[in-house]
Specification:
Blueprint lengths: L4 E7 L2 E7 L4 E5 L15 H14 L19 H9 L8 E2 H7 L6 H9 L12 E2 L12 H13 L2
Parallel strand pairs: 4-5
Antiparallel strand pairs: 1-2, 2-3
Helix pairs in contact: 2-4, 3-4
Length: 159
C-alpha cells in the first residue's frame, strides 16, 4: 500500500489540501473534501512543491504546473485521454465538453468527458475548470460554481 501525506493551506478559493505519495500528487481537495483514510497529516517533498506551485499560481506568477501526477485511469481509456487533454487547454482559455470530446477522438462523448472531468482527482493542477458548456455557461465543478467562475475570471485577468 502506498503511504500518503497531506498538507493543507489557505487559498483565494478556500482551504485546499494536497495529498501525495513519495512519487506523485494523488489529489487536490477542496474544503468540503476529506483526506484519504490513513493519510499522514504532515507534508512531504511533493506536498510542499505542489503547495508552492499553487501559491505561485494564485499570485499570478505560474501558468503551468510541473508536478508528477498520479494516473487514476487506465492508460488509453477515454478518461485518461480527457485528463491528458485538460493539460493542453491554455491558461485563460476554455474549451467546451463537446470540443474536448472531439479532441480525444470521440465526438459523441461530451457527457463522458464531463464525467471524466468530475472524477479528475487534481482540479486546478489538471485544469478541468477550463471546460465549460457549449452555450458558454460554467457547468458543474467539484469546488462549486463560484470557485470555477473565480478561477476562470482570475486567469483571464492575469493574462
Amino acid at each position: 500500500m502506498t503511504s500518503l501525506f497531506f498538507e493543507t493551506f489557505d487559498s483565494p478559493v478556500g482551504t485546499l489540501t494536497v495529498e501525495a505519495s513519495e512519487t506523485a500528487v494523488w489529489r487536490l481537495l477542496f474544503a468540503q473534501d476529506s483526506p484519504a483514510p490513513g493519510a499522514t497529516s504532515k507534508p512531504n517533498s511533493l506536498t510542499r512543491l505542489a503547495t508552492q506551485q499553487l501559491e505561485e499560481y494564485f499570485a499570478g506568477k505560474r501558468r503551468n504546473f510541473a508536478l508528477p501526477l498520479a494516473e487514476p485511469f487506465a492508460q488509453g481509456s477515454l478518461s485518461h485521454h480527457v485528463l491528458v487533454a485538460l493539460t493542453h487547454i491554455p491558461y485563460g482559455a476554455t474549451a467546451s465538453y463537446a470540443e474536448l470530446a472531439r479532441t480525444v477522438g470521440n465526438p459523441r462523448a461530451a457527457r463522458a468527458v464531463g464525467s471524466a472531468c468530475a472524477r479528475n482527482p487534481v482540479p486546478i493542477l489538471r485544469p478541468c475548470h477550463r471546460v465549460i458548456r457549449a452555450d458558454g455557461s460554467g457547468g458543474a465543478y467539484r469546488g462549486g460554481s463560484a470557485t470555477k467562475r473565480w478561477l476562470l475570471d482570475f486567469e483571464k485577468a492575469t493574462l
